[in-house]
Amino acid sequence: MYPNWILQRAQLTPHRTALNFEGQIWTFEKLKKISIERAEQLTALGIKPKERVAIMGPSQPRLIFMMYACMHLQCEMVMLNRKLSKHELEYQIKDAQVEKVLVDDEDNSLLPDHQKPLLFSEVESSMRKPFEIEKEWSLDQTISIMYTSGTTGYPKGVRQTAGNHQASALASVLNIGLTEEDVWLCAVPLFHISGFSILVRSLLYGNAVKLYKKFDEEGAVEDIANGTVTHMSAVAVMLQRVIQGLEERGLRASPKFKLLLAGGGPVPENYIERAHRLKLKVSQTYGMTETSSQTATLSNEDALRKLGSAGKPLFFNQIKIAGALSPREMGEILIRGPHVTPGYIGHFSEKGATADGWLHTGDIGYLDEEGYLFVVDRRSDLIISGGENIYPAEIENVLLSHEAVQEAGVCALADETWGQVPAAFIVLKSDAEESELMQFCTERLAKYKVPKHFHFVPALPRNGSDKLMRRKLKDLLK
Amino acid sequence: MYPNWILQRAQLTPHRTALNFEGQIWTFEKLKKISIERAEQLTALGIKPKERVAIMGPSQPRLIFMMYACMHLQCEMVMLNRKLSKHELEYQIKDAQVEKVLVDDEDNSLLPDHQKPLLFSEVESSMRKPFEIEKEWSLDQTISIMYTSGTTGYPKGVRQTAGNHQASALASVLNIGLTEEDVWLCAVPLFHISGFSILVRSLLYGNAVKLYKKFDEEGAVEDIANGTVTHMSAVAVMLQRVIQGLEERGLRASPKFKLLLAGGGPVPENYIERAHRLKLKVSQTYGMTETSSQTATLSNEDALRKLGSAGKPLFFNQIKIAGALSPREMGEILIRGPHVTPGYIGHFSEKGATADGWLHTGDIGYLDEEGYLFVVDRRSDLIISGGENIYPAEIENVLLSHEAVQEAGVCALADETWGQVPAAFIVLKSDAEESELMQFCTERLAKYKVPKHFHFVPALPRNGSDKLMRRKLKDLLK
Q1: Helices A162-176 and B162-176, packing angle to 10 deg
Q2: What is the pLDDT of residues A117-144, one digit of tens each?
Q3: Cβ contact (<8 Å) for A178 and B180?
Q4: Which domain range does residue A305 map to?
Q5: ipTM score
Q6: Does residue B311 share a domain with residue B175?
Q7: What residues contact residue A356 under an 8 Å CB cut-off, 6+ apart?
Q8: Member of which family (chains A, B) (predicted)?
């Protein structure tokens, strides 16, 4: 049994800064008090310990208070991605069979229309009812559930236990170190593991989080140049904007700034080289929802020597390449460790996440002679756009549900800003305009998933067994 | 399952310095290679995986190689205290039912005469035989066994599992932080948890250990003043000598030096104040063999504000006072956490270490309003002399086995150098000289346990039920 992180952290370092948001400060003691108050309000409103709830809102303190309240209640939190369409949210809420949806008033209009959520404001103004706060947590209790798509295009709810999160945070600290002065800039979504893991680390490490509601290039550049933050998590597009911001202003990263953790897809090599010139230390990471954040991380010292690598596994983690007998042999990347999810909920709850204790990522890669991981190809033709994962099958399913569409294939096209964007290749059975299909997708898919390009073609490339060959779609453009 | 620490550390940071001894350097890769070689040599000499072995030697690299070899073989290592008498060693070796005793040639003469140990030199010059190295360890496998005495005076072999050691190292890093430059000075015995835990931390953290064969005041003072080490573990008598050394040479601790972890008994307040004047950061800790090192630690910032306190529990640990309903109420100190031993071996294997999941320390203390622990009185009249625990009952048992002794009582007397030393109060049944009793004890007890003072008295203070009142022994001196 391990202590309730929120209580223990407040007990150990009550007066340290836990959260900084738009200049306002909350200590760990304050966070504890508010989160218990929220938990009592949720109790008064009928939420019971260990129930499953969904939670949605922009990145601001009230969302963190609500999450910590749910953690006190040991509720399983389904983290809803606020970029999703109503259709997509509907699917997840139904699949997860949540007792209640908790939503920041700001995001209420994003929910499916028939939902009767509990608004944050209702909770915040509610009466309080005491509950028995659990002082100890078991490592196998589920803290969070995050949906991720897969080969089939149907999102799967991934369980992330207290043990997963804790192992991830502990393995990370053994890699990147820790001092009392550490402040982590969080401008990645709290509903993704990249953001939520910053909160977990803060509770375990006792360090401050500087939270941004939205990524703010100017703010981040200043924070990094002044050393008011020491760490930052970013996807490639944010890293690019930070680099450009520093370059344009003729600034460099402060020596106090220790690490920008770059995840959510590959980082162009050119960024790494420019970052080095700006004294901006960047570590590339490889991780996924199923591994509660980082599995491997490339240290800054190795960044130039091992360009393109995602580094070595963190201390508790193991990586192997299926079928590989020697270095540089390519194959599916398999992962093992205490950070790997025990499995899924809902429709995929029968499907184990691992085979023989190893998570089969579907990603293709190799380990070099020194054990550095190189990710060569993403699972299931995965498209990564601005750090968000997009599975072609999910978009194809939507397109195929349109009456005019005979066949649909989706693949990634390179994009200056987002790294990649989805493009659709369509065989029509009756007339339809691009604008009509785009509108159709926009109603059913998160904006970042809506194809940026539509190409009408006479046939799609298929193999002998008639399987769509997504990698050949791009050739149709020639 | 967690990775074999030695293999994983060598895989992640092969070229970092792991060990520095008398100017010679070993990297983690080197340590791995040598330890596997030793394991193969042990295999050739008939040691099988998971067997229980005893191990003894002075603090030097060959002892570490041998320990790590045993860890590769997943052998349970009984760590023999080389200060013990042959009688005492005999008891432990027999109680633990070890398959083999591994001993540094230097210490062979310290073993009971009939023992047929395996000398380190024999292992080092042996042929090698391959074995299947276990790449994963389970948290509940026993890594080390350390004997500690108790109320009865009969030493108990305490199991310390991989999970205990790992939890201890991880909780400690969350408290004291970590940077790549960290170097830990180890001049405390490797057979005690204070020393062995430095090795465990080094493997998990990837930091260097500067090992001293014996505590060397001049060397330690230089290391601290020059910043060639960043951390040091010490008992009060070593701390005192470091302080005095710095004072006499007009030196101060380097700003690079981060922390002297002072354990193994109370630290006089005067030391703390002098250390502060020397910019020497000192953290007092409270721990014991059963908790695989620190349970609570007082941070340096709190050192003066909370003089006399052992601090707050580390992140995974819980402390409560039996029966206490409010702060400052005194009672037995109870401990809970993943660092607490699952139990004992040998004669006491039936005796659980915990009740309801809590370790009953026998120590008396209280928690103040802020949750800081104050240890008021040690368990079972425990005497702590230079960081070594001495249980009066153990010495009394020896004295009572002397034909001239009718009754014997042992208690602590304050001592300038050692903090405390044991003193014996004796009722004779026939004539005996002090020198004779001293000689008798010297043959049967570790030197540090031999009473420094003998007082012949007509009767011992006893309570109504005739129980010896050790705390009243001192009054006999008046």
Answers
A1: 60
A2: 999 999 999 999 999 999 999 999 999 9
A3: no
A4: 167-377
A5: 0.88
A6: yes
A7: none
A8: Belongs to the ATP-dependent AMP-binding enzyme family. MenE subfamily.
